[in-house]
Amino acid sequence: MLMTRQRRPVIRTLRGWAMNVLNEAGAIRECEEHGWMQDRADPHARERAFDIARRDLPEGVSRQAAEAALRAVLDSIGDTCPQCPSVEQDRR
Ligand SMILES: [Zn+2]
């Protein structure tokens, strides 16, 4: 019996959930060419992400833990793709 496939991928880690929330809010985005996550440094998108996070807490996760997970993701990714030409950095 090969019925183990699931329609929707289960988000297994809190980090994965946080990435998903941030992505949904537009706070981070994936480089289309290289697949690296980038912080868009958009304070409004971040606020939106935290709003989504509070409304959509994973089961058994406290609000504090969820917010910490979002911050940890934001801290761990850069605002440019490490493999893209450095043109973007001129916009800072
Ligand atoms: Zn790239």
Structure, briefly:
The protein has 92 residues and is mainly alpha-helical.
Task: Give a verbal description of the structure.
This protein is mostly helical. It has one domain (14-91): Arc Repressor Mutant, subunit A, CATH 1.10.10. The chain is 42% helix and 7% strand. The protein has a two-stranded antiparallel ribbon with strand order 1-2. Helix 1 crosses helix 2 (43-55), helix 1 (14-25) packs across helix 3 (63-76) and helix 2 (43-55) runs antiparallel to helix 3. The chain starts with 13 loop residues before the first helix and ends in a 16-residue tail after the last helix. Residues 31, 33-34, 36, 81, 83-84 line the site of zinc ion.
Please specify the SSE layout and strand pairing.
Layout (H helix, E strand, L loop, with lengths): L13 H12 L2 E3 L6 E3 L3 H13 L7 H14 L16
Antiparallel strand pairs: 1-2
Helix pairs in contact: 1-2, 1-3, 2-3
The protein binds zinc ion.
Zinc ion (ZN) binds next to loops.
